[in-house]
Design a protein that fits this description.
about 300 residues; alpha/beta; 5-stranded mixed β-sheet; 3-stranded parallel β-sheet; flat
Length: about 300
């Protein structure tokens, strides 16, 4: 799991803030403090459960303080020190063994965060705000993370025109022209919805990627973790594919798009040597188009 942390950075008399004033840094501190407080409670439960487990395993009385393993104690101590200082656990330095233990504790602050800064439409168009630099400094000092400026006001207007694509395009072109009139030119000032970027950033934060399978009736995307090997990717489709994995025939979508000429055929890709057979050790890449070869023999009759 991950967290999209939405931060308000716009003024509006119509949208009242609970604290009556706009201060994204204060809001970030407040939410982080609440997340750390929640994790402190979870950490105490983790400690109690571990002590009970050790007492039961060693036959120790409930009133006795049981000995805890060195790796559990170090993991707990590091997490507690971080949380006591209102610092997310994900910013700490841990050994691989400690990480394996901590990941089962369900702590919120171990999750990757993407910070989404909600600007006014005016500031979104000009890609500027007095708060953006301060927010960036705060994020760097608190474990770092991706920052995405956006405007719910702008997105709502784009969404409201979804049934009228010509008007929707005209609206976004008008916003882009407003930026040009301010002397702001370049691809970064082309106004468009940030929803696709939000989706991509969320997937990247969770280390996710996709591969594709294609047939006459259907093209389908499958989600896997980065670093996934071909047999494990096959298992996402069906466990038999992983169990009986033989090989994978692979072409990347970028090569297919560049070489196929719009045809639904791999002929040009194969001619260019971009269609390859891969074995069990192949590490799947973003955008792979795959045909898995597998064979699961039935049990022999006695």
């Amino acid at each position: 799991d991950g967290i999209f942390h939405l931060v308000r950075a716009f003024d509006s008399d119509e949208v009242v803030h609970v604290d009556d004033t706009i201060d994204p840094i204060r809001d970030l501190e407040t939410i982080e403090g609440e997340l750390c407080a929640k994790d402190k409670g979870s950490l105490e439960s983790v400690l109690d459960n571990e002590k009970n487990r050790v007492r039961k395993a060693k036959g120790i009385a409930r009133t006795a303080d049981p000995p805890l393993s060195e790796i559990f104690q170090s993991s707990y101590d590091k997490c507690k020190a971080l949380l006591d200082s209102n610092t997310p656990v994900q910013t700490g330095e841990f050994t691989s063994g400690e990480v394996e233990i901590i990941k089962d504790w369900g702590l919120i602050t171990t999750k990757p965060q993407v910070y989404v800064v909600n600007l006014s439409k005016k500031n979104f168009i000009r890609k500027g705000s007095k708060w953006l630099g301060k927010i960036q400094d705060w994020v760097k000092a608190h474990g770092d993370g991706q920052i995405i400026p956006m405007s719910c006001e702008f997105e709502q207007e784009v969404f409201d025109l979804k049934e009228y694509p010509d008007e929707q395009k005209a609206f976004m072109d008008e916003c882009t022209q407003t930026a040009r009139d301010l002397g702001l030119k370049g691809p970064q000032f082309v106004c468009k919805t940030v929803v696709p970027r939000l989706i991509r950033s969320g997937r990247a934060a969770l280390c996710l990627q996709s591969f594709y399978t294609a047939g006459p009736k259907e093209v389908r995307a499958w989600t896997i973790q980065k670093g996934c090997l071909a047999p494990q990717a096959a298992g996402v489709i069906h466990s038999d594919f992983e169990r009986g994995f033989i090989k994978a025939e692979v072409a990347n979508f970028d090569d297919f798009k560049a070489l196929s000429g719009g045809a639904g055929s791999m002929a040009k890709v194969k001619e260019a040597g971009k269609y390859k057979q891969q074995g069990k050790g192949y590490v799947m890449q973003e955008g792979d188009i795959v045909v898995f070869m597998h064979n699961v023999s039935g049990a022999k009759k006695k």
